[in-house]
């Protein structure tokens, strides 16, 4: 049986999740895809820190060693900032590797560029994990766009802040208490700026805009208001009125063709589809011409949801390669 | 450019929707897929009834004429009962045609058989439209199943009855008034038995069971309770208590491996994800091991939503055929 070698770049929560799933589903994936996947390299900053027992021999802190590995064909990337992630993936694609990324900061800025490069090199870019964690919004959108035009996308794209708003309402916690607990549970980064400022949701929104409209609004024109503008008292008043705060990201194509976006807290009543979306859940509503409004909802964060959609990206890529034998 | 010939079997609401979308999106589909699709035959019972101007020359009441057409390669089927639909599609597959069906009655009973036959003949079966109208639950499930195990599926699978329950609550209509209006709007069939008895939702549930678990529960063991057991007074009482009736279909794999199903009205409170799903909307929640619970929501009925997912099935099939050029 053919063996495909893969590398994991970045071995934090998501990187480790990929490793676990690939191990746990080894047999099933081999059976479904007809090929064996072997994790041959794991790129880390500190090779002395063996985070999963038995992986020491796979660790490297040198990206060149990854591509020097004979038979390397898939690169899973779970690093956080634009660089060096972009350069690594560019190098991967130039080495004819398929790439699967969870890096929204990089992808919001360089996603179209990577995809063009991938097309030129005959490889695929999987980026389901860049938006809404375990929610398959990218695949759903790609599928819809085969036939439909999309006019507007609206959603809760940040699980951390939705968790915080939920706890402020249900437990009466202050903003600070909710943030501390989100950090303790690993939802929020040590530096929570990107989550609470709305920048994280903004980056995901830009990835969706690229896909739905082929372009993004000018970043400077997108109003981005964080959840840090909402106090415990605001939440209390809203709850008494039967309303809930949601942090909503929205991008639409106006009648004049212009793409406009916005990220801001929104008060919703119980008739609103985002009303029951609590905890770390994300929800994305897509307005289309033929189908109407489609909504996908699910866990927006966490090791396994995010890692799972990355392995699904890999499986989809391999499925495409396996092709389809029929004469038309 | 290669031309692919297609037939539409059945030219009611959904069949006409397919014809309209294929015309409206002709350019876009040609550009995306690299092939031209031509509707070459339309199978109807009465060829003297030209439902869309300009289609008279395409109409036939003889299935053999469909397959006698040179270059016929895709069959869209939008007929309602098991036969003759199954025989037609079997014949189509044996003639190496891809088939795309919206026929849940047939597919609940013969779906696995058709898929096996298709595999043997190197063609594809698209059946997104058999379940939940415009909601892409089949594609979402297929994608999830590449990596995840599914334990339970729960949802509103019948748009007609959800519309009726919504109107009974919002307008204070009786069951009979709601049914009449559903019929007037074309949501309910002239014979509404399948909708209100729960048989329609049951058939869709069986299609989902086949896909998620590879098998169905014994049909006789599935409890199916219709919405006709709910009176206007029941709805009024529920509304006063802040609750809503939903008609819910559910199938799960028990700990002992047994697959069990149920279709019945359910009272849900405002914290329940199905609470805000009103009108003809469907919603399907899928419990998985890695991702957690994913929910997809959208219009469960109507000409364009259903026809749109059928054309998406076609586009997906052609996309697979076009293949993927890379050496691994």
UniProtKB/TrEMBL annotation, chains A, B:
Pfam families: Homoserine_dh (PF00742), NAD_binding_3 (PF03447). Pathway: Amino-acid biosynthesis; L-threonine biosynthesis; L-threonine from L-aspartate: step 3/5; Amino-acid biosynthesis; L-methionine biosynthesis via de novo pathway; L-homoserine from L-aspartate: step 3/3. The keyword ATP-binding does not apply. GO terms for biological process: methionine biosynthetic process; threonine biosynthetic process. Its EC number is 1.1.1.3. The keyword Transferase does not apply. Residues 136-313 form the Homoserine dehydrogenase catalytic domain. One of its GO terms (molecular function) is homoserine dehydrogenase activity. Residues 10-125 form the Aspartate/homoserine dehydrogenase NAD-binding domain. It catalyses: L-homoserine + NADP(+) = L-aspartate 4-semialdehyde + NADPH + H(+). NADPH binds at residue 104. Coiled coil: none annotated. Signal peptide: none annotated. Belongs to the homoserine dehydrogenase family. This is Homoserine dehydrogenase. The lineage of its organism: Bacteria, Bacillati, Bacillota, Bacilli, Bacillales.
